[in-house]
């Protein structure tokens, strides 16, 4: 009987693959919700939504959540029939054809990278704010962002279950501080008593709700990444749909509840003025009043950890897209290498980290602001790209089910995705119509940011033609692995 050393695999051993069966429903949900960065979204963005939309802002988050729940019906139904690791682009390929799928693959890589790399600017600025608030000191943002790049690389290099456990801890911490705020407001009865006026039709059906909806849809970006972890999920036909619904339900209800708590902390009559005059400190003022100054200090720290959790979640998603595209033969085969010990796509992770470092250093060299330019100008095209992918995926569902034999109901395979297509299209129009609120940039810069997503998607069509003529075997197999 021969014994093989665990440190040296025999020459005939198969290459290492992702760690299958590692992730349960809660693990995948942690990745998705962490990517959304609930504390950062609430403390940093919700006050602007209140200032623009009034006390009806909480209902906007509920409406966005309901729209994405409708999208999830067709999306998760299709996930039982499409086994590929390419998530969005696999679905779009199977429903709308290979040229659209290749365009979607490019858009996914640009979109997810935009969502992640821009957040290194937020990490730098949030850390600056935290250090200044706690110690009165000023720190440069670039070393913080570069240290973040190294930290996130290491988190992605380690095993996926390590990442899930780390994100679980960070997510509990950031949601816990918001629950603490809610407890203080509820126990003390708010500023002037508790009110349900935020959900009254007269306060919801106002012109400012369009802006609220634009912010609300942006707050859910990345929730669909549940399917990216299909290869590593336990019983993926059950785990992935459950995690998707849990993520959408949690984010929709938690966002709406937390924004309502912020309204109660200042009162229906005063919250809009407070949010408009000092949006950056709305949540810090509320938690200082209803819990204590120590809680505000803790919230500053947890905003930084919230950003780190979001970066790690997006980094892991990007790496798996890179691995899937390498398996397809579109990206270099080296991107498909998986670490023998940690079972992570470490080459894809290195490439993504290097790209992030190049972008961060370029913005620093240009003297750009880490928040107003690195975050907003890189994040916004990424957000629009992922929203466009959601729209294309919803559109792909009925076309896919028309072509296969199945026992799924028509409500899941046609009506829900049709409704989701209309609603997601409306959401994209809302975001584009209020793009200046997201970027604070010139009309020309906004036009360029809006144009990135369609330009990248359309680039996929000549690339598809090139693949079809020069590498037909890669083209024919695309979207099926």
Automatic annotation (TrEMBL):
Gene3D superfamilies: Amino acid/polyamine transporter I. Pfam families: AA_permease_2. It is found in: Cell membrane. Keywords: Cell membrane, Membrane, Transmembrane, Transmembrane helix. It comes from Streptomyces xanthii. This is APC family permease. GO terms for cellular component: plasma membrane. It comes from the Bacteria. GO terms for molecular function: transmembrane transporter activity.
